[in-house]
Amino acid sequence: MSIASRISIIMPSFQQGAFLEEAVRSVLDQKSVDIELVVLDPGSTDGSRELLVKLKQDYGDRLALYFEPDQGQSDAVNLGFAQAKGVVFGWLNSDDRMRQGAMAKVVDWLDSPEPRWLYGRAGMIDETGAPCSSLIVRYKNWRGRKFSRMKLLTENFIPQMAVFWNRAMWVRTGRLDNDRHLDMDYDLWLRFSEVAEPLVYNDTLADFRVHRSAKGSRQTGAQLDAAFATAKKYARGMGWRGKVALGVHCLLGWRTRMLYLWLKPR
User: Fold this and answer.
1) Angstrom distance (rounded) from CA 29 to CA 261
2) For 103-149, how does the pLDDT look when each residue is reduced to its tens digit (9 = 90+)?
3) Which of 24-33, 94-103, 213-222, 232-241 has the lowest mean pLDDT?
4) With b meaning 16 or more CB within 10 Å and e meaning fewer, what string describes 204-221?
5) Among 69, 117, 180, 260, which residue has the fewest nearby CB atoms (within 10 Å)?
6) What is the rounded distance in angstroms from the CA atom of residue 99 to the CA atom of residue 96?
7) Got the DSSP string for the chain?
8) What is the mean pLDDT of residues 84-106?
9) In the beta sheet, which residues pair with residue 40?
10) Largest Cα–Cα distance of the chain, in whole Å?
């Protein structure tokens, strides 16, 4: 892929002013790639909008801002991709951050007329940006080192902020399900895997931030319940193999609940 080719990253944001500037700059300060960031804010009142307008003075047209109401995070991401100009796509939440050099590492492989997607590793950071919860990070990296659809049915081990795909894949699989608010990424990965297996990139591409107001920290149980329902949907019709996958998914889900009670902020 040439430097002139465009990457589109979508960033839904609401009341994340404390982390927003770091997230924006982590995307738009990527080197040797032509990248646009589309940020959607449906009505923050914590200074986020004013900050974004100020950042646009630094980045110009590379930072596109949409301050319209939406129907939730999935809808915001869909609205963002409807505006995207790129051929390589990604989605970064406004409290996470992209690692420097991430896009230069993956963009060439994704420049294809055939549907493609990949995932890498993600670190975990706290409110200050310091690394934390290394046990969770090591476990997810271990689980994700090799991909199979059957494994994915047992647990969502793919870090959303470290997944990238091309326009051909998005066109083939369609949008996020607007009715999903906690496991829309898991549903999307399972749809992607129906089309093609991902490239597994064994390098850290992004960081996931844990903090008290994060949705994943506040709704871990509901998120795991939603993921199980999604796995059940895709395991339907697989016979005994599907039943085994769901049994493992249930066991791993209860294990994760216990770990997150200990390791995640309350």
Assistant:
1) 35
2) 999 999 999 999 999 999 999 999 988 888 778 888 889 999 999 99
3) 213-222
4) bbbbbbbbeebebbeebe
5) 69
6) 10
7) --TTSEEEEEEE-SS-HHHHHHHHHHHHT-SSSEEEEEEE-S---SSHHHHHHHHHHHHGGGEEEE----SSHHHHHHHHHHH---SEEEE--TTSEEPTTHHHHHHHHH--SS--EEEEEEEEE-TTS-B--HHHHHHHHHHTTS--HHHHHH---S-GGGEEEEHHHHHHH----TT-SSSHHHHHHHHHHHH-PPEEEEEEEEEEE--TT-HHHH-HHHHHHHHHHHHHHHHTT-THHHHHHHHHHHHHHHHHHHHHHHHS--
8) 97
9) 12, 66
10) 57
Domains of the chain and CATH, by start: 6-211 (3.90.550.10)
Report which residue type is found at 74: S
Backbone angles phi, psi at 15, to 5 degrees: 55, 40
Tokens for 176?
Answer: 């996020």
Q: Which amino acid is at 201?
A: Y
What is the amino acid identity at position 179? D
Tokens of 136: 């969770």
